[in-house]
Structures are given as structure tokens and as C-alpha cells.
Amino acid sequence: QVRLVESGGGLVQPGGSLRLSCAASGITFASYAMSWYRQAPGKERELVAHITSDGRSTKYADSVKGRFTISRDSTKNTVYLQMNSLKPEDTAVYYCRADYYSRYWGQGTQVTVTS
């Protein structure tokens, strides 16, 4: 059974930081490219960050470049999203996704940025 379990979300003030984690099980983690998406109320789900299966290449949405960092630890089957300088517009449910021959989604974790 494949599971992607996100954690680390919460309530934070503007300018603050959070680190999201997505722990994967039931897949050969090293074979999967991993991504973080987010969906704000009333908006479509959007790509936030992506990392290749070997961890050598990353890409980011323009809105988070320079503030967010995606990384992965294959010893822990976990992908991370370090989020710094958070803004109210970063408020959303954040989902991780695994892609190889199949695609899997996590259940999401809420991030709320407010003063």
C-alpha cells in the first residue's frame, strides 16, 4: 500500500518559517520524482516545487523562488519543503506528489500565514 504522509503545517506569522515533510512508504522512493503542490481556497492546485528522483535538479514556482527549498533524504524516504519569509498568500493546503510510472498524492497539510 502506497502512502504519502505530509506533516509540518500550521499557523505562522508573516515572515516566519515552516518545514514540511512528506514521508513515503510502499514505493521505491529513489525512483520517484517528488513535488510539492498547494491549493488555496477557490483556486486551482499549483506546482510549488519539484525535485528529480536523484535529487540533482529542482525547480520552483516563480512566486516561491528564493524563499522555498525542496530537498529529499532517500535514507528516510522523505521529501522536505523548507519555507522561509512566508507571506499571507502562501496560505494553502500543501500536498506532496510522487511520480514515476504511477502518480500518488498525499492527503495534504494546512499552512496558514496570518498576523
Describe this structure in words.
With 115 residues, the chain is an all-beta fold. Helix content is 0%, strand content 52%. It contains no helices and eleven strands. The strands form two sheets. Strands 2, 4, 5, 6, 9, 10 and 11 form a seven-stranded mixed β-sheet that branches. It has a four-stranded antiparallel β-sheet with strand order 1-3-8-7, with no helix packed on it. A hairpin with a 6-residue loop joins strand 5 (46-51) and strand 6. It is globular and about 40 Å long.
Write the layout of secondary structure elements.
Blueprint: E1 3-7, E2 10-12, E3 18-25, E4 33-39, E5 46-51, E6 58-60, E7 68-73, E8 78-83, E9 92-99, E10 103-105, E11 109-113
Could you tell me how far the N terminus lies from the C terminus, measured between alpha carbons in angstroms? 40 Å
What Rg, in angstroms, do the CA atoms define? 13 Å
Give the tally of β-strands. Answer: 11
The gross shape turns out to be globular
Helices, by number, come to 0
SSE series: EEEEEEEEEEE
Quote the average pLDDT: 97
Unreliable spans are none
The helix/strand class is mainly beta
Strand content: over 45%
Major beta sheet summary = 7 strands, mixed
Percent of residues in helices comes to: under 10%
